[in-house]
Amino acid sequence: MSALNAADGRLLIEEAINNAEEFVPDSRADDAPDKPRLEVRRADPHLTVSDLREVLKGSDELFDRGVPVRLTNSQVLGGASIQVVKPEGLIRLTHTLCRPFEKKERQNGSIEDVNCVLPTSHAKMFLEWHGSWELRPLNGIASAPLLAEDGSISSGEGYDDDSGLWRENVPNVSTLVPDRPSKADALAALQTLRTTFRSFCFADASTVVEPETGSVVVNVSTPPGQEESAFLCGLLTAVCRPSLLLAPGILINAPSISGAGAGKGLLARCITNIAFGKQPHAVTAGPNRDELEKRIAAELIQGGPCVFLDNLNHRAFKSDQLASAITERPARVRIFGKLEMVGLNSVALVLMTGNGLTVSEDLARRFIQIRLDPKTEDPEQRKFVGDIRTEVSNRRAELLAALLTIWRWGRQLENLQQGTPLGSFDQWGRWVRDPLLALGCQDPAIRISEAKSQDNRRQVVAEFFSNWHAIYNDKPVPVRDIDDQLLRIIDPQNRGRQFVASELQKMAGTRLGGFVLTRQAPPGKWGATTYAIQRTTDAQPDRGHRGHRTDEPTLNVNDTTNGCDPKPQDGRNNVQNESAGPMPPTNPMPYRPNPSEGAEDKQTFEELI
């Protein structure tokens, strides 16, 4: 019986095999019903790339940030970040959005669609198709409400077509902000903010001792001091930053050595918690200036809401990349591994902390400076009640609404008095600084001159100019006749006259400390170039961003002796004066790393400039 059954079973299996149809895999079995197909034409790759563009340009997977980029979710950073797409990543993304195939001829002569992998050469061709991707621009990631000139506030998630920003975790505070806030509403909001941060040791704040806790806190019953005003301005700047065309950075400084533990990093994290709902990830300066510039460029490309440079201690900070990112839109950055520059419309808040930190050259006018001073040798031993970071996180919506109440009140206020002009940041002044001034805060822009005076490079040049004028007055002097006292300032390492001549040529036209260095071309073929220091008595108007003074007369460009020196129109080789024509614009000073940071008395003139 069992044998008979086994034979019958074999017959049934053979019959089923003979009657079965040939199995042909369904090329779309693993695809979604609406997943588009992409034909790969190896002989005509440009047609494949054009079809691929049509697939990618309407998706939320790929954007244009000077180069094709995509959004990634980082658990470490606590949110989205921007990643430059490479050929391998583009291939993966292509297969996520469509199904590449190619046509192949079968043995019987029929044409069949066969699934395939997008060739790497095609992916590279697409990535190199600059200016023709037709992708939506991605200017950054915003976690704060987007603001408009008319005082409107918008919240939402995902891509915003008007701003080109990707919005995530944006709280809806529209019901917490009055439609028409009064000055009383704005003052109450300001008091809420001041009370929340009263435990921070703003350097010039009036303080009292709280009876309940015994802690020394800011006396919020008196008007805000310069440092507290700068903090309030920086906090509102952070909230408004995604909606501002340009905005200054924030520098939180404390005294050298004893400033460790003053609360700089804590204050920076509280600012980002309120504005962006997340902690910033700190970036250090690295071993040298080149490495710092690369790190800044990487942070800008990633498009996070904040570029946070931490622990920049005992230095005069300088960064061409950061200066461009703050006042240029778009700013140009270099793509790593390529001799290629791309433009970025960065909306990142720039935030720096350090002990004994100053900013050099043009960065001085690009930062709001907040000074903390615990007035003790051991700041870390101070005792506080509660956890300010947790409190700020829990009260984010309330504090955000308080800031936006001040902002909206300022936007709706007619004839709002303007503060000190700050080139490049007119919109920031109207949105951020001026409403706070109207509520009794002090103007952080008046600190710019103080920041410039603390610049070591400026100090050395100012000393050189002052000593020159004391020795020679306004007499033109050739390099070979410069006094030894001046040589010790400009050339402490005794590099020689050729070095001195080079440095003076670079400084020609520089105005500093009430003086200007002028350069006079040699009178003949064998004559010597001379230099003179002239005192400037008139106040010069601000040049603005990349601008020139409107009151400057035109240089005589008919004579280009020595390649750049305009010749006085009267033919005399004398010192240029204010009426004879403007001085040429200040040449950028060369930067050389300081090998002995913190030991200013050992720095040479060349290292400082």
Key terms:
single chain; 609 residues; alpha/beta; Rossmann fold; 3 domains; five-stranded parallel sheet; four-stranded antiparallel sheet; 17 helices; 26 strands; 17% strand; globular
Please characterize this protein's 3D structure:
The protein has 609 residues and is an alpha/beta fold. The strands form 9 sheets. The protein has a 5-stranded parallel beta sheet with strand order 15-16-20-14-22, with helices on both faces. A 4-stranded antiparallel beta sheet has the order 23-26-25-24, covered by helices on one side. Strand 5 and strand 6 (111-115) form a beta hairpin. The longest helix has 18 residues, at 2-19. The relative contact order is 0.09. Mean pLDDT is 81; it is low at 22-30 and 538-609.
**Sheet of most strands:** 5 strands, parallel
Shape verdict: globular
The portion of residues assigned to helices is 25-40%
- Reading off the top of the CATH hierarchy, the class of the largest domain is best stated as Alpha Beta
The number of E-state strands comes to 26
Q: What is the mean pLDDT?
A: 81
What is this structure, in a nutshell?
The protein is of the alpha/beta class and 609 residues long. It folds into three domains: 2-127, no CATH class; 183-452, Rossmann fold (3-Layer(aba) Sandwich), CATH 3.40.50; 455-608, no CATH class.
